[in-house]
Specification:
2 domains, elongated, 80% helix, mainly alpha, disordered C terminus, 0% strand, Serine Threonine Protein Phosphatase 5, Tetratricopeptide repeat
Amino acid sequence: MSRFSQASCLWPGLRQLWQGAWSGLALAVCFSLALNFTLLTTLVWTELSTPLVRITAWAALALVWTTVAVVTWRRMPRQPTARQLQTAEGLFNLAQSEYLKGNHFAAESALRQILTHNPEDGDAQIMLAGLLRRTARLDDAAAQLAQLEQSEGYGKWWPEVARERQWLADLKQQQSEQQESEQPSETETDAADADRQSTAESHSPIANAA
């Protein structure tokens, strides 16, 4: 866990904002405004509030700050232990081996085991996204990339993420074009209906009697 990750817990909303959540920005701004207003009414505009109101405001700010800091700290991913790292390395090597053999299910299982212990493992995340793309689960692959973008070490992986997203966009475009080509056009449908109607009329008893 980096020092910045630890420090981001000390200001409400900063950790969420760093992860790209706009709710973190709203929380950080609201807390800043509340803190500045309380400071002004305590040190400058003392006539705007009574001592009891000021004490209550400071207590409320302290409660919000403590609660958010504790909750944010507890939700932060912890650094894996040495044993977990060894296990993750073995599982990653297994995933690569199975992937090259075409055993996609076994490779996915190994990657998900890694992410269970360390959701921030960028190697496992980007490989899982590629595996999901190759097995035609494009929406799942896009969701996995979105999760990687929320990770702390995303900056290291942004070129791979951009490349994967481009491949996903190309595949979705190909699927869309294929679906459009498989659907008969309106002219072809009308012509087929006319042929069926003409055939039916030619074989009707009235037509034969005439």
